[in-house]
Design goal:
Two copies of one chain form a homodimer. Chain A is of the alpha+beta class. Chain A has one domain: Roll (Pnp Oxidase, Chain A). Chain A is built from four helices and 14 strands. Chain A is globular, with a radius of gyration of 16 Å. The termini of chain A are far apart. Strand 14 of chain A pairs antiparallel with strand 14 of chain B, so a sheet runs across the interface. Chains A, B: One of its GO terms (molecular function) is oxidoreductase activity, acting on the CH-NH group of donors, NAD or NADP as acceptor. Chains A, B: Its cofactor is FMN. Chains A, B: This is Flavin reductase family protein. Chains A, B: Keywords: Flavoprotein.
Chain lengths: 192, 192
């Protein structure tokens, strides 16, 4: 494993998503890996940490997650802008070589078949919390985070380090089409 | 009304939240206004536009929303950093003068009692979509956006204008405690 990838304590895992980055969602079932982009992912709880993610019915990744009950939410960086946009635009059904064409390299951080996208800033391994009504009605999925890791160059000691890292480490935040914003300047509010 | 506040077409309303800003949530019931901060808000659907927001059981704003079935999600700017942090830290129950002390000025953009926070970059007026099970189990609320507005200095022609506006107009993205990031540099992925 890359020496920079370090476990994140579960009580700090919510901080990986609280600032609202666009994420990559990955899953695996019966020998098939897939990765998609999702701008609509959000922290849901602190302990145990949970999150929500919107997965369209047309996506192959959703089918893998429904079949396996597991998935990974990972935070791509500005260095992965093109990769993120490509896996968001292309379906595995129409593009069987999608992951290779988008330059996706997979790690198996969790120690089994679940695929993690190399080069991200952080990874949250999730167990699907089944809620069939909201999955069917709103395409809304709930995950409980069972393990988390981050690249210490982007996140360490429980905090993002964007102001101390190169611009290629910034999280990216989708607007529409191919348009994104990188995360920006650190701001600190006064003690209340 | 401030001449810079313009309606946003409902089919573009999702773009106000897709980049993951921290928001202010406001509500009103029987003469009581309140405003809270929420980092865990997310777009949910395009048409009709919907969103999710996590509202802790201890918040007075949640009670107002459950009683009235209506709320506003608004996008504060870097200029409202202190206001946002204060309304996020203080409860109306312990601080009856909370809104005045935090410097909150309210507009009535919707034409009735629903309160909108002046100075924000965008406002989404929502109807609560009742889902009692996920409200009770996960503190997760779904809103359907029935009208939206933006300050044209920050969002116009269906797009955020952060790269063309002063830094005080940037959306803010919470990390933890008083720590936030402003949204940053515009990035454009290649056509696929």
């Amino acid at each position: 494993m890359n020496q920079h990838i370090q476990p994140v304590p579960l009580d700090k895992a919510y901080r990986l998503l609280t600032h609202g980055p666009t994420v990559l969602v990955s899953g695996h079932f019966e020998g098939v890996d897939n990765v998609m982009a999702a701008a609509w992912a959000c922290a849901l709880d602190f302990a145990p940490p949970k999150l929500t993610v919107v997965l369209d019915k047309a996506t192959r990744t959703r089918a893998l997650i429904e079949a396996s009950g597991r998935f990974v939410i990972q935070v791509p960086t500005a260095a992965l802008l093109e990769l993120t946009n490509r896996v968001g635009n292309r379906s595995l059904d129409q593009h069987p070589g999608k992951l290779r064409e988008a330059g996706v390299a997979l790690l198996r951080l969790g120690g089994d078949t679940l695929p993690f996208v190399a080069g991200c800033a952080a990874w949250l391994e999730c167990r699907l919390v089944p809620e069939p009504h909201i999955q069917a009605t709103y395409d809304l999925f709930i995950g409980e985070v069972v393990a988390a890791w981050a690249d210490e160059r982007a996140f360490r000691d429980g905090h993002w380090q964007f102001e101390n890292a190169g611009p290629e480490w910034r999280s990216i935040h989708h607007v529409a089409g191919g348009q994104y914003y990188a995360i920006g300047e650190a701001l600190r509010a006064q003690e209340d």
